[in-house]
Amino acid sequence: MATENNTIENFLQSACRFISTEEKAQDMKDELKDHIYSYIEEYTEDGMSSNAATTMALKQMGDPYVLSKIYKDKIYKYNKLFRIFSLIIITSIFILTDFAYISLNSYNNFQIFLCSSFTLLISLQSIFEIVDFIRIIKKDRELSKEEPLFYIQSYKESIWDEKAMKYVQICLFGFCLILFLSLIDKFNTIESPEVFSSSLVTINSISFTLLVVMSVSIFNPKRKSAIVYNEGILMFNSFVPFSSMNGYMWSKENINGKACYSLAFSTKKTSIFKKSSLISNDRASIKVSYSQITLLNELFKSNNIDEINS
User: Fold this and answer.
1) 84 shares its domain with 210
2) Which residues pair with 150 in a beta bridge?
3) Can you point out the beta strands (E) in 135-206?
4) Domain final residue pick, 39, 70, 101
5) Which helix (H) or strand (E) holds 267?
6) Are both 94 and 171 inside the same structural domain?
7) Angle ∠(139,144,145) on CA atoms, nearest 5
8) What share of the chain is helix, strand, coil (3-state, %, to 5)?
9) How far apart are the first and last CA of the chain?
10) CA-CA distance, 190 to 303, in Å (whole number)?
11) What's the pTM?
C-alpha cells in the first residue's frame, strides 16, 4: 500500500511540477487524486489487484509530463522590466531635484559635498540594482531555451509585513505620481523661490522614500517565480548555480497557525558561518511548500550539496 501511495504521489508531483503556489498545487492534486482513485476502485471491482489497478489508473490519466505543461503557470517576466523602469525614473527625479535644490540655496562647500555624496551614494545603490536586474533578465532569456525541472512552490497567502509592504509601495507610487503631476502644473505659476524650493524638497523626499521601499522589498523571500533548472535556481532577483553552493539549510516558522518552511543557501561568495548557524545572502532565501522538501533534498544530494543543520 505504501508503494502504491508513493507511486501516486510521484505522479502528482510530476503532473504539478510547473505550479508555483502550494494551495493551487494542492487543489490540482486533490482533483487528480479523485480521478485516480475512481479508476482504481473501478479496476479492483473488475478483479484486478490493488497494485495492477493503480498502474492501470495512472496509465489512464496519461503522461504526467504532458499534463504538467497543460497545468503550467504563466510567469510574468515584465515585472523585472517594470522594476528597472521604475528605478530609473525615480532615481533620475531624486538626482535632479536634489541638485536643483542645492543650486537654489547658498550652501558652503562642505554642505554641498555632504549633499552630493549622499545623492551619489543612493544613486549608485540604484544603479547597482538596475545592473543586477539586467543581468538576471539576460540569464532568464538564456535559461528559457532549456526545459525547467520544476517550479518551487511557495505558500500563497502573504503574511502581514508582506501585505503591508505591497500596499505601502502601491500607495507611495500613486501619491508620488499625483503629487509630481500637480507640482509640474504649478511650476508654471510659481514665482516665489521659497515655494519652488519647498516643492523640490517634497518631490525629493518622496523619491527617496520610494527608493528605500523598493530596496527593502527586494529582500522579500516569498517569490513565486523561483524556477529550478539543471544549472541552478532562478529567482526574481538572482540566479544561484549549484556549482556555487556550499550548503543549504531549512528553517521553519508558524504563520497564522500554519507551518511554513524557508530555504537558505550558503554560496562560495557569501558564505559566513557563526555560532553553528548559516548566514546567507537574503536574496537566496525562498519560502517553500512542505510537499517539495523531499524533492529539493534529493536535488541537492544529486548535485553533491550538503544540508547544514542549525
Assistant:
1) yes
2) 228
3) 150-151
4) 70
5) strand 258-267
6) yes
7) 110
8) 60, 15, 25
9) 35
10) 65
11) 0.74
> Which structural domain range is residue 100 located in?
78-217
Helix axes 22-45, 2-15, angle to 10 degrees: 130
Percent of the chain with pLDDT over 90: 21
- Radius of gyration, CA atoms only, the chain: 26
Q: Report pLDDT digits (tens) over 115-173.
A: 788 888 888 888 888 888 889 889 988 998 888 999 998 876 555 555 565 666 666 66
Do β-strands 306-307 and 245-255 pair in parallel, antiparallel, or remain unpaired?
parallel
Distance CA(310)–CA(276), nearest Å, equals 6
Place of cell 517553500: 288
Cross-strand pairs, 233: 228, 240
Strand-pair category, 239-241 with 232-234:
antiparallel
- Taking only the tens place, the pLDDT of each residue in 62-111 is 999 999 999 898 877 777 888 888 888 888 888 887 777 777 776 677 77
The count of structural domains within the chain is 3
CA distance 12 to 31: 10
Mean pLDDT, residues 222-245 = 84
